Amino acid sequence: MTKRGTNVRISALDSLSDEISACRRCPRLVAWREQVALDKRAAFLDQDYWGRPLPGFGDPAARVLLVGLAPAAHGGNRTGRVFTGDRSGDWLFAALWRTGFANQPESVAIDDGLVLSGAYVVAAVRCAPPANKPTPSERDACVPYLSRELSLLTDVRVVVALGQFAHQIVAGELGIRPRPQFAHGAEAVAPDGTVLLSSYHPSQRNTFTGRLTESMFDEVLDRARSLAGDAPPEYPIAREK
């Protein structure tokens, strides 16, 4: 892509991010995210919470798109960046670093210097939901944002769905029929050739119990890079000894 084409894409993604951040479509989610931003967790009393919907984050030329469930109330809803400031994000970005998609293993704040290469991360639902459970109508209100991101991220060849919730949404958006069953490491190919690659979500429930291990997660991300036909990682792969 030419430099002008890249700049146009970045501008379009920035405009979409601004639109997402201002969204107030779902009254229950608006009330919850804003109340959480007022009733801060004790450890974060000195911080200003974001308290708004979260746009995507990453490389506009990404060939791998990762889709999670929703922001954590005191994670992304606090920091203003998807998967940032919570245990699930700790797992995700450490794995992206180990597999060469990220320049550092931690994502703690919106200005912490984190850069992704070859990957872009979004949540299927953009606001923190009560009990981490969005309603079907809230899910459906957010799906058009994912559809528009997919239309702008034209280099994406693989979509990694983190958990069954994201798996179902992505399969629908990619037009995969019949709808494939969710399983860790499962692959399905969309009519346009895009691959849906699924993984257990890096939630504490899965990581604390060993249902999802670091090696399992790394294998999914390595597979995503291979399927995407991506260039060698810009950042050195940093496997833990």
Q: Summed up, what is this model?
A:
The chain has 241 residues and is of the alpha/beta class. Helix content is 40%, strand content 10%.
Q: Overview of this structure, please?
A:
The chain is an alpha/beta fold. It is built from 8 helices and 6 strands; from the N terminus they run ααββααβαβαββαα. Helix 1 runs antiparallel to helix 5. The radius of gyration is 17 Å and the shape is globular. The model has no long low-confidence stretch (mean pLDDT 95).
> What is the oligomer described by this structure?
single chain
CATH topology name: Uracil-DNA Glycosylase, subunit E
| Individual helix count | 8
- At the first level of CATH, what is the class? Alpha Beta
Total domain modules:
1
Which parts are unreliable, with pLDDT below 50 for 5 consecutive residues or more? none
User: Can you summarize the main beta sheet?
Assistant: 6 strands, mixed
Mean pLDDT: 95
**Share of β-strand residues:** 5-15%
So what's the overall shape? Answer: globular
What's the architecture, going by CATH? 3-Layer(aba) Sandwich
Order of helices and strands: HHEEHHEHEHEEHH
What's the total count of β strands?
6
Spatial separation of the terminal alpha carbons:
38 Å
Percentage of helical residues? Answer: 25-40%
> Strand order within the widest sheet?
1-3-2-4-6-5
SS-based class: alpha/beta
The CATH homologous superfamily is termed Uracil-DNA glycosylase-like domain
- Round the Cα radius of gyration to an integer and report it: 17 Å
